[in-house]
Structures are given as structure tokens and as C-alpha cells.
Amino acid sequence: MLDLTDDRSFADTGFLTHMAWLRENDPVHWHPHPDGGGFWAVTRYDDALSVYHASDVFSSRFGMRIGTNPGAVAAVTQRMLIVSDAPDHTQLKKVLSKAFAPSEIPHAEQLTRGIVQTLLDEAVEAGEVDLVEVARRLPTRVVCALMGVPREEWDWLGGTMNAAFEGEDEEARLCAHAEIFLYFTELVAQRRAKPGDDFVSRIAHDQRSAPGGKRPLTDEEIVVNCNGVLAGGNETTRYSAAGAVLAFLEHPDQWSRLRQSGSALLPSAVEEVMRWTTPGVHVLRTAMAATRIGDTDIGEGDRVTVWNVSANRDEKAFPDADRFDLGRTPNRHLAFGGGRHQCLGTRLARMEVSIFLEELVARVGSLELIGEPKFTASNFTWGVRELPMRLIR
After folding, report:
1. Helix, strand or coil for residue 325?
2. Which residues contact 379 (CB under 8 A, 6 or more apart)?
3. 64 by DSSP, 3-state: which?
4. For strand 282-287 and strand 128-130, is the pairing parallel, antiparallel, or unpaired?
5. Which residues make Cβ contacts (< 8 Å) with residue 133, sequence separation at least 6?
6. Which contacts qualify for 32-37: CB closer than 8 Å, 24 or more apart?
7. Residue 72 CB: number of other CB atoms within 10 A?
8. End-to-end Cα spacing for the chain
9. What distances in angstroms separate CA 260 from CA 6, 256, 264, 324, 393, one per listed residue?
10. CA 279 to chain centre
């Protein structure tokens, strides 16, 4: 059996075969942990959806991924959106979502298009590129711009965020995380003193409901959630954009279809790219009461993992699920999770990928792979990490 706790199990696409076996034979699977205990692995779409929608039973505040340091979670629980339950989660998300609303950032599409055009023009001009490096810069630059981070610091902050998750050792990753927290602490202080027209300024001067009335978000709430927004946006769009290009290389008929159909196909194409790539591999929940998932009894305190990457290949929810089909509809995938904890940046990620596909078609006639694709070895956020190729004008 595949060890779901071992990142090395996810160094290529072979784990998808194991997920298919679990869906068919053991959809709510008890997975022992090497350090003792274990967790349930939920791999079918309907079961995954039931966990997401039962947020009163399945808690996020004790951690949302396998292998999380309990002390680190305890330090930010009920203050960081992804490790919070209602009512704190509700109030935090209301403030953060408002700051990302279309009315608050009407320039987001124009900003994103300009960034995508610059990146793709440079890539086409270069000829041979690692497409992942192109895709890596897109979400970082967009989110940094929306946060009001100075232009000259975009690439530094993006590189530091990558080091925080992909550093060579634990010490390097911790140092990178510390740099990011320090950076946002200083940025919040600046925005409190002199607000601008940006995401950080808006949440720094908004208020959330609290016992007895309302209060501003604390510096800590703002800093940890800015870190979460930057990390989430960076991972999802990078892996989806690069994964889309790899999918076109592997399914040239779909690349031709997109080029011939143009913008008419973009809405369904974006959803299929998200389903196909599913960068967020799993999430963790903790059962607050005895319950059932499907035909399986779940005990109070049990840890339950939802494997989005498997649910999005469930044949019962997605006929011919192993076929990359840009016209697939309906396509109610779980690439952004579901229920109360659906990803805060869903709209922004969809817009980034849509513009990326549109501008790619406008600039590139054909795609040529010039090296072996390599994948990130991670059971949490996964995708292609190297994609050497040639973009032909």
C-alpha cells in the first residue's frame, strides 16, 4: 500500500493509480501513521463533499494537513482562516472576502492581464523556458500588487515564499517563514499609519464582529492571513497554469480545440484545468463527535483526510474522469475544497488561469517539450515543478 504520509510517494503521477484502487475497494480507508495512531482517508467525491459540508462535525482548528506541527497550529488557531471554525472563521472570512470582492479590486483583471502578457512575451522571446518558472511569477505578482507590496519586492517575496515551503531543510524553511512574518508585520504597521488602496490597508481598517460589538482585526490576525493568502495563491495558480500546459502537450487535440474555439471555450476549460491539476491534494479535519462517512463509523477525535485529488477523478461524479476534456460540463470539482472552507481566492485563481489560457493562445502556435517533466514530491500541494519546453510563436 502507498504510504500517504510519505511525500516521496507523490514524486510522480503513480499515486493516482493507488487512489483509484482506494475509491473502488476501500473509499474510507484507515491509514496507520508511522508515529502511532492514524487517520481516515476519504477518496470518493460524495463522501468528500459530505465532510466539507459538515463543518460543525469536522473541525479545522486542530490542523488542516497531515504532519502539521501541533504547536504551530495552536499558535494561530482561530486567528488564521484555514485553521479556524465558526464563529471566528465566519467573521474572519467576511472581512477577508470583502477585501477581495470585485467592487474592491475592479482593476484586478487589467492588472492580471498586463502581468500575464509581460511574462508570456518574455517567454516567447526566450524560446526555450521552464514553463513552471513563468507560471510561478504570475500569482505572486498579482497578489503582491493587490496587497500593495512595492514592485521591486515582488520577486523577492515570491522567492521567499517558495523557500518557506520548498527549502532544502527544516531550518531553511523556518527561516523563510520568519522573514515573511516579519515582512508582513512591518507592512501592516505602515498601512495602519498610512492606508492605501490595497488589500492590507482594507483589512487593517475594517472590523469584525466580536462579543459585545465589533473590533478591528489584530496585527497577528492580519499577518497570518496575509501569509495564507500569498501561499494559497502562489501554489494553486502556479500548478494549475503549468499543469494546463503539460496537459496540452499530452493531449494536443485539446490544445487545437482551445485555439480553434477561442474565448467561447474558456469558462469550461478553466474548470477542467482546475479539476485535472488539483494542486490542493488533501485537507485534514478532526471529528468533534462520533459520526459516519458512507458505511464507516468515525470516532470522536478521529482525524479525517479528504483527498481532493482522488475525488476529482471519481468516475461516479465525472464520467470518463481520466480524460482531459476542455468542454466537460457539469464540472463541480473540489479543486478549491468545499463548504465553509472553500478557498478564499477562488475567483482570483479562476481569473488568472482564464487570462493565462487566453493570452497563451494569442501568442503561441505550438508547444514543444524539450525535457522530462518533474513533479513536486508533496502530499499537500502537488504539481509539475519543472517543465522545459519551447514556445513557438
Report:
1. coil
2. 4, 5, 6, 7, 9, 10, 66, 281, 282
3. coil
4. unpaired
5. none
6. 33/5, 34/3, 34/5, 37/303
7. 13
8. 45
9. 42, 6, 10, 17, 16
10. 6
CA 336 to chain CA mean position, Å: 7
How many angstroms separate the CA atoms of 333 and 221, rounded? 30
Please answer whether residues 343 and 104 qualify as being in contact, where contact means their C-beta atoms are separated by less than 8 angstroms. Answer: no
Instruction: Render 201-243 in DSSP notation, one character per residue.
Output: HHHHS-EEEETTEEEEPPHHHHHHHHHHHHHHHHHHHHHHHHH
- Cα–Cα distances in Å, from 127 out to 116, 121, 215, 368? 16, 10, 53, 10
Residue with cell 488589500: 199
The pTM of the full predicted model, rounded to 2 decimals, is 0.95
Tens of pLDDT along the chain (393 residues) come to 799 999 999 999 999 999 999 999 999 999 998 778 999 999 999 999 999 999 999 999 999 999 888 988 999 999 999 999 999 999 999 999 998 888 888 999 999 999 999 999 999 999 899 999 999 999 999 999 999 999 999 989 988 988 887 777 788 888 998 999 999 999 999 999 999 999 999 999 999 988 888 999 999 999 999 999 998 888 889 999 999 999 999 999 999 999 999 899 999 999 999 999 999 999 999 999 999 999 999 999 999 999 999 999 999 999 999 999 999 999 999 999 999 999 999 999 999 999 999 999 999 999 999 999 999 999 999 999 999 999 999
Residue 294 is classified by DSSP as T
Cell of 60: 479545522
